[in-house]
C-alpha cells in the first residue's frame, strides 16, 4: 500500500480511530522489532513521526492552483482560509492553518480588531500571501518539526484538513 493511500486512510478516520491506529502501529512495531530498529521507531512518537512524514509527502503532491477564481470577501484570516479550501477543493497545510489562527490572534486588542480584513488588505494580496505560505509549508517543512508540534498539541487534528483532492500521477 502506498504511503499516500495509507495516509489518506489514517486521516479520513475519526480522531479516536487515529489514536487506535497509532497504538496498533506501536504494538505491531514492538512485536516485529529487530535489533536494527532504533528504539524511537518502536514508540508512539515514532508512529507519529511516520504519520507526519506521510502527511508531508502527501501535501507535496498537491499542486498550488495556478489560476485564481475570484475576489474572496473575508473578515478574518481563518475565514479566508476556509473560503479558499471550499473554492479550490483542497486542504491547506497544518502549518498554514496554524499561521492563519495566529494572524487572527494578533489582531485581538488592536484598533482594527473588528474591521473586516478585506477592507484593510486587498483580497488578491491576502489570497496570494496564503498561497505563498502554503507553497513554503508544502515544499520545505520538515516532517520532524511537524511531528514535534503534533506531539506537543493533543488537538492538532483540528488543524489537519480532511479535504482529499484527486492527485494527478506524475508520469
TrEMBL record:
Pfam families given in the database record: RdDM_RDM1
Gene Ontology BP term (one): gene silencing by siRNA-directed DNA methylation
Full protein name: Protein RDM1
Gene Ontology, cellular component aspect: RNA polymerase V complex
InterPro entries: RDM1_plant (IPR015270), RDM1_sf (IPR036319)
PANTHER family documented for this protein: PROTEIN RDM1 (PTHR36366:SF1)
Source species: Prunus yedoensis var. nudiflora
Source domain of life: Eukaryota
Amino acid at each position: 500500500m502506498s504511503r499516500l493511500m495509507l495516509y489518506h486512510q489514517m486521516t479520513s478516520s475519526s480522531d479516536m480511530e487515529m489514536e487506535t491506529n497509532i497504538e496498533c502501529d506501536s504494538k505491531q512495531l514492538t512485536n516485529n522489532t529487530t535489533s536494527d530498529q532504533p528504539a524511537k521507531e518502536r514508540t508512539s512518537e515514532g508512529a507519529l513521526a511516520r504519520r507526519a512524514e506521510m502527511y508531508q509527502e502527501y501535501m507535496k503532491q498537491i499542486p498550488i492552483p495556478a489560476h485564481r477564481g475570484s475576489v474572496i470577501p473575508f473578515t478574518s484570516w481563518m475565514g479566508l482560509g476556509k473560503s479558499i479550501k471550499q473554492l479550490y477543493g483542497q486542504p491547506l497545510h497544518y502549518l498554514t492553518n496554524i499561521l492563519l489562527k495566529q494572524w487572527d490572534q494578533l489582531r485581538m486588542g488592536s484598533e482594527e480588531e473588528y474591521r473586516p480584513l478585506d477592507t484593510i488588505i486587498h483580497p488578491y494580496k491576502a489570497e496570494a500571501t496564503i498561497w505563498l505560505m502554503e507553497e513554503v509549508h508544502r515544499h520545505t517543512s520538515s516532517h520532524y518539526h511537524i511531528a514535534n508540534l503534533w506531539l506537543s498539541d493533543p488537538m492538532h487534528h483540528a488543524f489537519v484538513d480532511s479535504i482529499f483532492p484527486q492527485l494527478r500521477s506524475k508520469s
